């Protein structure tokens, strides 16, 4: 008995099913035939059943095995969970385990999602097991749940929606239009459409500020200050907000310029200091050589020629 096996039921179950040979027999017998045909049971390998991340901290499935498919491509995981009493939401818990196993598979630099087969082992007092084994049946609106989770999810691809259609989308139109054209360098066409939309007063002041801050931070427009000023002239009701954004942009550019100048000055100062230091080292070396030559009785003219020292520098070491 330990922290990971809090009941005798769990302890016995794990003692058997964590043995690869036992698990192989279990899966051979209990996997649905269509899924069993996909599995290469010879590649069965026990994995950690703990899924420790921000969302699933403290969640631990009972047993997780990995194996390869019959074609040798891709992975299948078998997640075996033990239950000694029925739980209405057990299938939802199994789905959370399965999704966590998929995420860990991707975190290990795999490129495709694996099949994860949840299997529930039950031996409770109530028989047969009283709840559906489809997690979708746990929804109050089962029909809509099946439609949503067994089909394609809704997609809003603004790159495929025409601008004429987008401008009819009322309060969300400005967001869709700007994010569709954010990489556009020439904002002339976008400017006219934004003016038309913003005159309808669909956006709040906070949304307007966020919208244009985004345009200036992420967009590729060649002259953002000019773009803002033109909008301000055409939208007098929003002029104060737009000019505030323009001033913030100008202040940011000024601070960045000062910072860049300081960084450049520091770099140039360091380079100049290093250069002066090297020159001083070279001069000291020449002076030392000149002292040696003079001590050997060589005349000043010859020493100056050989070392490149000036007469003034040579006179300095003679005193």
TrEMBL record:
<dbReference type="Pfam" id="PF04754">
    <property type="entry name" value="Transposase_31"/>
</dbReference>
<dbReference type="InterPro" id="IPR051699">
    <property type="entry name" value="Rpn/YhgA-like_nuclease"/>
</dbReference>
<protein>
    <submittedName>
        <fullName>Rpn family recombination-promoting nuclease/putative transposase</fullName>
    </submittedName>
</protein>
<dbReference type="GO" id="GO:1990238">
    <property type="term" value="F:double-stranded DNA endonuclease activity"/>
</dbReference>
<dbReference type="InterPro" id="IPR006842">
    <property type="entry name" value="Transposase_31"/>
</dbReference>
<comment type="similarity">
    <text>Belongs to the Rpn/YhgA-like nuclease family.</text>
</comment>
<dbReference type="InterPro" id="IPR010106">
    <property type="entry name" value="RpnA"/>
</dbReference>
<feature type="domain" description="Transposase (putative) YhgA-like">
    <location>
        <begin position="7"/>
        <end position="208"/>
    </location>
</feature>
<dbReference type="GO" id="GO:0006310">
    <property type="term" value="P:DNA recombination"/>
</dbReference>
């Amino acid at each position: 008995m330990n922290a990971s096996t809090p009941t005798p039921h769990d302890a016995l179950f794990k003692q058997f099913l964590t043995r690869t040979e036992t698990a192989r027999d279990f899966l051979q017998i209990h996997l649905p035939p269509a899924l069993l045909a996909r599995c290469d049971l010879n590649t069965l390998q026990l994995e950690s059943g703990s899924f420790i991340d921000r969302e699933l901290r403290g969640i631990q499935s009972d047993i997780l095995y990995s194996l390869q498919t019959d074609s040798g491509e891709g992975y299948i995981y078998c997640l075996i969970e033990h239950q000694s009493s029925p739980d209405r939401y057990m299938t939802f818990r199994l789905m959370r385990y399965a999704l966590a196993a998929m995420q860990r598979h991707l975190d290990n630099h795999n490129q495709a999602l694996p099949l994860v087969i949840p299997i529930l082992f039950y031996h409770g007092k109530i028989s047969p097991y009283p709840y559906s084994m489809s997690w979708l049946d746990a929804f109050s609106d089962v029909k809509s749940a099946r439609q949503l989770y067994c089909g394609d999810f809704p997609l809003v691809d603004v790159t495929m929606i025409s601008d004429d259609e987008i401008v009819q989308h009322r309060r969300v139109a400005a967001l869709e239009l700007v994010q569709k054209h954010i990489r556009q360098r020439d904002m002339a066409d976008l400017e006219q459409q934004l003016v038309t939309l913003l005159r309808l007063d669909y956006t709040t002041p906070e949304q307007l500020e966020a919208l244009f801050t985004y345009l200036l931070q992420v967009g590729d427009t060649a002259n953002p200050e000019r773009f803002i000023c033109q909008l301000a002239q055409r939208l007098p009701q929003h002029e104060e907000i737009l000019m505030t954004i323009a001033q913030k942009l100008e202040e940011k550019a000024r601070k960045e310029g000062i910072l860049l100048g300081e960084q450049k000055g520091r770099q140039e100062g360091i380079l100049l200091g290093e250069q002066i230091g090297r020159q001083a080292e070279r001069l000291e070396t020449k002076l030392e050589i000149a002292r040696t030559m003079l001590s050997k009785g060589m005349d000043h003219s010859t020493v100056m020629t050989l070392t490149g020292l000036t007469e003034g520098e040579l006179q300095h070491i003679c005193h």
